[in-house]
Amino acid sequence: MRVISDILARLREWTRALFMELGVLWLAFKDPRISPLARVLAFVTLAYAISPIDLIPDFIPVLGQLDDLIIVPLGAWLCLRLIAPDIRQELRTRLAHSPDDPAARPSMHHSISLGIVLLTWALILLYLFWKFV
To answer: How far is CA 87 from CA 31, 48, 79, 94, 131, in A?
Structure first.
């Protein structure tokens, strides 16, 4: 029983850290000091993280959840490696010290942009369904 408790505690800690890093990606996406490649990768990673559309559908046992457990952390890791360490630390500090800062949260403008990306994915899937089914 202790082993399961330890595993769940580590999983909660890992999940909190991942959400913190996704917050850093959001701030990085909006920061003009970040390279265009890192900003695009941050946007794609965030869009995939909140997207209801997965590469492997969730109804497929195990594999459906594995793509989320691999792609999102891998995208976050890669994007964070493209950001200079001092800027990365500054963004983490900013997020940790001001969780109620409106600049640290997505605005309606960015939510609309993300919605457009998700709508585009849905239209692509609809087209593929229409074309091949």
So the answer is: 10, 24, 13, 10, 46
